[in-house]
Amino acid sequence: MAITEQAGPASLIVRNARVLGAGSTADLEIVDGRFVAAGTADPATAEAIDAGGRLCVPGFVEPHIHLDKALLAGSAPANRSGSLDEAIRILGERKKSFSSADIAERAGRIVRDALAHGVTRIRTHVDIDSGCGLVGFEAMLAVRARFAGLVELQIVAFPQRGILGDPGTETLLRAAMERGADVVGGMPFNEAGPSASREHIRIAFDIAREHDADIDMHVDETDDAGARTLEMLCEATTANGWQGRVTAGHACALAGYPDDYAAHVIEAVAAAGIHVICNPATNLMLQGRGDPHPRRRGITRVQELREAGVNVAFGQDNLRDMFYPFGRADPLEIALLMAHAAHMGQPDEIDAVFSMATEGAARVLGATDYGTEPGCAGDLAILDARSPVEAIARQADRLHVIRRGRVVARTARTQTVAAP
Ligand code: FE2
What we know:
Layout: E1 2-3, E2 11-19, E3 26-31, E4 34-36, E5 47-50, E6 55-57, E7 60-65, H1 84-94, H2 100-116, E8 119-127, H3 135-146, E9 152-158, H4 169-178, E10 183-186, H5 194-211, E11 214-219, H6 229-239, E12 246-250, H7 259-271, E13 275-278, H8 280-286, H9 302-307, E14 312-314, H10 331-341, H11 347-364, E15 380-383, H12 388-393, E16 398-403, E17 406-410
Parallel strand pairs: 2-5, 2-6, 7-8, 8-9, 9-10, 10-11, 11-12, 12-13, 13-14
Antiparallel strand pairs: 1-17, 2-3, 3-4, 6-15, 15-16, 16-17
Helix pairs in contact: 2-3, 5-6, 6-7, 10-11
The chain binds fe (ii) ion.
Fe (ii) ion binds at residues 64, 66, 125, 218, 249, 279, 317.
């Protein structure tokens, strides 16, 4: 794997590209960083890459990751219970030695890994609380600036310890939004009770309205089927007219609701145009530990949400920290987990899983220039596969990753096997 950062050509032609949904392969052209109509680029001066009929996507999109916590495993005590609560407690102690430079260095390593895996747009949550203040947020500003030419990075101001339960956090959230955070985060279940959860959501919407910002909350990341903050979020979304601009991450409790209440909430999620992000890696690991057998899988109701018309995507969430010990910022790895965890194994379901990491996640980010049509951002990942199922099954290499018309990462692998 190599990441190149030199200036690229003004125009690029990718020949024999297989774009999902297209009946046949086609040549794609990028001029001045944008896809253009066929025949626009000058073949005499444009750089050319032959995709050879391989699958091409307009960049994978990572809609839910925690870059500030990445790679903390090894520099903090082990999470012996494996629970979310213990992870948050350990993190609280570790944050006392956080520095902006340390966070930016770890985050930068993950952004480079993501880029090598074809990810050109990322939404990261960053902890903001009375303990760490804005140190993580400042690190993300530095990472966003450093990688500006390579990756689009959206920053979510994330009050993981609550807003009411952690005095001072509301002021910090407002400061982060003033200084360039893109999205208002939240964790309403991590408050003292239902009325505080409602107030948490109300404050988040107030801040979002002040900054005309989208909202992306951690919702009901718990096995407690009594958690009700997803329904509260639906009500607030509709009341504020924020339909299509709100995302609910995790939503694990939905899996534990009685079916009739779950159906009621799913209908409300669809009516409010809320996007849902499932994080199968982390939640398969964290949730369900207290269940007697048979144990819940810990993930939200992916199939039912999709059937109701809800845009469901998936994210990496944590990686190699006190929440989750693995992860390499590769959407194909999470796609494989997603398909297993949500029982999505039919051909159309596998295609749907693949699309969650492309169009689905792009919708979460509110991208208006995502795709390969003329005018869209000139991002492309060429996979060493010819179909989504092959890409996921073989965890296919991303041979070329193109950002705004220039190659920013390449992977070339040599493998030899003895003849039988
Ligand atoms: Fe998360």
